[in-house]
Amino acid sequence: MLDNLLFFEFSGIKNVHCLFHGKNFNTEKSLGSIAFDRGENNAVIRENRRYLFEKLNMPVLEVHQIHSNILHFNPKETHYSEQASLEGDGIATDKAKHALLIKTADCQPILFTDPKGEHIMALHVGWRGNRNDFILTAVAEFCDTYKIPAKDLLAVRGPSLGPNEAEFTNFAAEWGDAYKKWYNTQKQTLNLWELTRFQLQQAGLLPENIYRIDFCTKTMPQYFSHRENNQTGRQASIIWFE
Description:
alpha+beta, six-stranded mixed sheet, five-stranded mixed sheet, 5 helices, 20% helix
C-alpha cells in the first residue's frame, strides 16, 4: 500500500497492521518528514503528509507531543495540512480503520494491541517518558479503560536511539541510582531498549509478547535523528486494525 516502509504484524493477529517509515517514504520526490516546524519547509511537510494520509485512506489520529505522561482515547481526526493541537504522547482507540500516528527522531515508538485486535495504542516514549514511567501508567490506563489484562497485550518497539548512542553525561541528575543497571559508566550511555523491555514487563506484559525492531536511528542514515542533527525531521510510526 505504501512505498519504502517497514511493515510489522503481530504473530497470530492478522487484522492489526503496523508500519514504520524513514526519511524517504515518498519515493516519487524523495521526501520524508511528517512533522511541522522541525527544520524543513512546511509546504514540503504538508505534501509529505498529504501523500501519506491519502495512501492510508482512513482517519489519522495524532497528538502534539510534549514528552508527557498524557494518553488520549479516540481524539478527533487530524487533517494532513494541520499540526495536531491536542497535547499528549499517547493515543488509543477501539475504532477500526483509524490510524494512530506517532512522530519520532530517536525517541521510542511503541505500538500495542490486544489479542483480538480490537483495541490499539501508540506511545511516544522519549528518555523522559522512561524516567517518568509513562509506559506503566499508559498500559494501566489502557487496560482499565478497555478491561484487558495486561498479560494479554502485545507490543512492538520501533526504530530508535540504540544502546551505544544514548549518551547521558549527567546521569546522576537526570536518572539516579535506580537506573544504574542500564547505564554503562565507561561509555556514559544508557540502554533505553532494555529499560523499555523491563518497564513493559513491569507493566504486566509477558516477555514473549514484547517485540523489538533494533534499528538505531542515529547510526542508520535512513532515519531522522535528533542526536545526529538538532534540526532534523520526524518519521512516522503507525498502527491500525481492520
